[in-house]
From TrEMBL:
Native organism: Citrus sinensis (Sweet orange)
Protein name: NAC domain-containing protein
The entry's keywords: DNA-binding, Nucleus, Transcription, Transcription regulation
Xref: Pfam families: NAM
Entry's localization field: Nucleus
Domain (NAC): residue spans on this chain: 5-138
PROSITE patterns: NAC
Length: 138
């Protein structure tokens, strides 16, 4: 685990490392990992407030969180905040780790509520990772 910590602070963690940590979290909901904080639901916060909730001191304002998404009745992820919402803005990427672990990565952009679409887009971005479901997950 110490080498993972070095990788974490040396540069952005790899997609593979994030999937491995996410799998550990899915197997044990009490699992914690230094720079990643558990958050009830990320959409309870506005994007400009996320840095105050983060466990990392990053010059590039990159934050990492574990959270369990909530879904609407139509099985869409609930990603709305009071000020706007997170929208998937790129094709979902498939991730395959060397150890056989698979998952997906979604790129999202924050849009402000109440403005025309072109004016609503912001500079705030997020990557949302999902590890492939497994019967052993809680």
């Amino acid at each position: 685990m110490e080498s993972h910590m070095r990788e974490w602070y040396k540069s952005q963690p790899s997609d593979e490392l994030i999937l491995c940590l996410l799998k550990k979290k899915r197997l044990d909901p009490h699992f914690s990992y230094g720079p990643i904080k558990d958050i009830g639901h990320i959409c309870s916060l506005e994007p400009w407030d996320l840095a105050t909730e983060s466990e990392t001191d990053s010059e590039d304002q990159t934050c990492y969180f574990f959270y369990k998404p909530r879904y609407t009745k139509s099985n869409d992820a609930h990603r709305a905040t009071n000020a706007g919402s997170w929208k998937v803005t790129r094709k979902v990427s498939q991730i395959e780790a060397r150890n056989g672990l698979t998952g997906t990565k979604k790129s999202l952009t924050f849009y402000l509520r109440g403005l025309p679409r072109k004016e609503a887009i912001t500079e705030w971005g997020m990557h949302e990772y999902h590890v492939k479901d497994d019967p052993s997950y809680e």
